[in-house]
Every structure is written in C-alpha cells, then in structure tokens.
Amino acid sequence: MLARPETRRCIECGLPYTMPGFNYHHGQIENGPAYWSDRGILCSPACSLTHFKRREAEGTQPSMPAPNPFEFGR
Q: pTM of this prediction?
C-alpha cells in the first residue's frame, strides 16, 4: 500500500504539518498552525518572517489578513 502524500506543509521550508518543530497555536496540534498566509501554512516565526520579506520584495503583500485555513464554514 502506498503512503498518502502529505498535503499540509510549510510553504517556505516544506516541513510537514505533524513533524516536530512545527509551531501550533497555543502549542497544541488540535488548534491548527500558529502561522499562515493567503498562500498556505508556515511552520515557525523564522519561516513567517522569510515569507513576509519575500512578499514585501515582490510587492505581493495581501491587503487584509488571511482566514484561518483550518476553520471551515465560518
């Protein structure tokens, strides 16, 4: 049987969502990721800052906060 590919990864470094080192809201995986953008989830403050700086340099910063990718139907 083939393992399913991990679809939830940090958009900057590729760290899978469930791996050690991934930061969760209030430190609990049930609460979802601590960092995200309109392009996907981010694993750490370092990746969040890298993502922000890259978007700033590209001139592609969003005009409003991105919705939480783990909250559906709100």
A: 0.83
Coil vs helix vs strand at 30: helix
pLDDT per position as a tens digit, 3-45:
555 679 999 999 999 999 999 999 999 999 999 999 999 999 9
Contact 33, 71 (CB under 8 A): no
Round to whole Å and give the CA distance between 24 and 42: 10
Radius of gyration of the chain (CA): 13
Sort 35 into a burial class: Cβ within 10 Å, 0-12 / 13-18 / 19+. buried
The two beta strands, 40-42 and 35-37, are antiparallel
